[in-house]
Amino acid sequence: MSRPMVRILIDRFFGALIVLSVMMAAIPVLVLLLFVVIKGLPGLLTPGFFTDPPFPQGVPGGGVFNAIIGTLEIVGIGSLLAVPIGSLIGIYLSEYGRNQIGDAVRFISDVLTGLPSIAFGIFGYTVVVLTTHHFSAISASIALAVLMLPVILRATESALVLVPQSLREAGLALGAPRWRVTLEIVVPAALGGIVTGALLAMARAAGETAPLLFTAFGNDIVQTNPFQPMGALSLTVFRNALVPYNNLQDQAWAAALLLVMLVAATNILARLYVRRSQH
Amino acid sequence: MQTEAAPRAVQDGDAEIKLDARHVNFFYGDFQALHDAALSVRARRITALIGPSGCGKTTFLRIFNRMHDLTPGTRATGEVLLDGHNVLSSDTDVIRLRRQVGMLFQRPNPFPKSIFDNVAYGPHMLGWSKARINQVVEESLKDTGLWDEVKTRLHRSALNLSGGQQQRLCLARALAVEPQVILMDEPASALDPIATLRIEELMQDLKQRYTIVIVTHNMQQAARVSDFTAFMLMNEKRAGEVIEYGPTDDIFNRPKDSRTEDYITGRFG
Amino acid sequence: MATTRTLFDQELAELKSGVVRMGSMVEQAIAESMRALVDRNNALAKEVIARDQEVNELHRLLRERAFMIMATQQPVARDLRLIVSFQHMVLELERMGDHAVGIARAALRLNDLPQLKPYIDLPKMAEITESQVHEILGAVIEADQDKARAIAERDDEVDTLYHKIWDELVGFMIQDPANVQRAAILLFLAKDLERIADRVTNIAEDVVFLHTGRIVELS
Asked: How many angstroms separate the CA atoms of B113 and B117, rounded?
């Protein structure tokens, strides 16, 4: 066989290998998605799914209205805590934190990212639930906030580090003090990355189950008091998956599908925001 | 833009000294980058700093508005007197200094904001009234020859302008805070020849009101544009020194130092 | 000095040797035109006139070359002074060549007529002038501005001789109208020599400019 032919064949072989690997990685994900869509769609389309709270076991019908409110509120409060604090820490690390303190913060943040999410649940349980003698949504929010913090922090820092130094110099050369340059020039320039980081952290938090198990605990009643236990979509999936009632299982699948759609929508939103902020 | 270039002053004994650098030494940690550098920059004239790469001309320039403060571990000794006050002293109000001594960088660096917001940034920071800001934005853009090109799209992003326009925008931005001195660090090196010539033409207009110091590695540009030229070289210890300084006509016709002549005639031993 | 502009240096060296060659040609033309007068040699005179074409051609070539170097190499400082000086010198040399042709033509006319008087002062004036031309070419080759200044000072000797010749020839014309034609031609010939000596001073000024960048009036 001639040399060029051998080369072409090797090329084709490796090309095929790569395509095969991609398929091996993509197929489980696609199968999963397909599964969730197929299993969840009936529940999603059931009337009352979005508007009714869960009915007692054995009673047909019901919905996840409580869980939707719960996920939104728990993640909402958590974000309110994590996003400002995380962004500010990220800003500090990028602009003022090229020192040992900054390195220490980064190290701790990396460690936190690797912790199993149930650890945050235990944290929330110990710090809030045990002291207040209450399961509550706010304890879950706090747990989720600590979980989101390192993600937002690192995303903010990365986004700011990407802003070219020449922009800072331009601001400083105009006689702007450092804080103005940071807040009025650097942060707006990095806003795309910061917002994306925040959105993705929120999407991840929305899907977390373990931290909510013994903090928010779950609640079949629709209520918005953060100091009381609250339901959430992830808890609904967890609890109803193994229950022997069809309607409840359907609701579990549908809740899972809803979460997937939420995460997908958040990702798309983040990308659209980045694209728009570049024009 | 058709303007008459301001005639180059032949008798310059009368132009007073705006910026006076004396015995300036500069260190990056232990490494000395400038050795006993001196320069008397005359008011409302263009002074050029020329020399081969690494001779310290940009380092020297950035001392004048204390931009070296941004790099940790740097130290400048000696005096740089702006209207009699030493800008290197620790009690200098650096913020105020940087408003009086503006800077134009090698690569255009407009903020990712609108054209208007770019120019208005300085005045806005100084707390000027909306009317005054509008006026100064228009004047600065007119002074840099941009007004006619951008007046219908002031609120579009500055990043959509061409390289030459962006650099003129950065100049307008610097002018908006009404500085007295403008430092230019190779302002045209990233621009095409036509944009370069426009900037040079601008400089001739601007020098009637501002004192300009320009670092350039383009000798023909220095000869075309400046009234005074300083030639710098690295010494054996790799510290930059000012070898010769004088009226541009003298430096480019009859330089006193043979090293200067070797450099400007393009002959490096 | 090893440099980063070897091609440019080569072009400058070629320009200089062109100038020197042209100077030698003009020097020879002056000597031969005077020889043609003193020896009453018409053939030599005609040769001088014919060879002036070469001098003109060299002048044209060198000026073009100098211009091209300026256009393409953007010379500054001493390089620019060098080229500008050479351009000017070459012009002066070309005019000197024309003066030599003037002398040769005068010789042609005089040689057909009986000699007015023995030629004594004219050859003396010519000798000094020729030595001036030779010396100034040396100063150009050696780039010696002091030598150039010294040569310019000798111009007074030529002027003195020129006035003496003038007075003598005018005397001849007053004495006898039959002398006027020959005396007049000789007057113009002397003028040609005097102009050549003047141009030597101009070239000396160019040598000084090359060094100092200043245009000074010498003599």
From this structure: 6
Evaluate if residue A277 carries a pLDDT over 90: no
DSSP C116: S
Q: What is the pLDDT of residue A213?
A: 92
C-alpha gyration radius of chain A: 23
The radius of gyration of chain C from alpha carbons, rounded to an integer in Å, stands at 19
| C-alpha Rg value of chain B to the nearest Å | 19
CA atoms of A246 and C91, how far apart (whole Å): 112
The whole-number average pLDDT for the span B184-195 is: 93
Chain-chain contact of B254 with C2 (C-beta, under 8 angstroms) = no
B73 interfaces chain A, CB cutoff of 8 Å: no
Which residues in chain C have Cβ-Cβ distances shorter than 8 Å to B253?
76-77, 80-81, 213
Render pLDDT for C116-151 as a digit per residue (tens, 0 to 9): 888 889 999 999 999 999 999 999 999 899 999 999
pTM for the complete prediction? Answer: 0.81
What distances in angstroms separate CA C164 from CA C120, C160, C170, C184, C187, one per listed residue?
11, 6, 10, 15, 11
Q: Which helix (H) or strand (E) holds C190?
A: helix C180-212
- The ipTM is 0.89
pLDDT at residue B143 is higher than 70: yes
**Reported CATH class of domain C8-212:** mainly alpha
What pLDDT sits at residue C100? 96
CATH superfamily entry for domain B17-264: P-loop containing nucleotide triphosphate hydrolases (3.40.50.300)
Q: Give all domains of chain A, ordered by start, each with its CATH number.
A: 65-277 (1.10.3720.10)
- Chain B residue with minimum CA distance to C9: B267
- Given CA atoms C112, C116, C117, C120 in this order, what sign does their dihedral have? negative
Among A235, A236, A253, A244, CA closest to A42 = A253
pLDDT, tens digit, for every residue of A161-174?
999 999 999 999 99
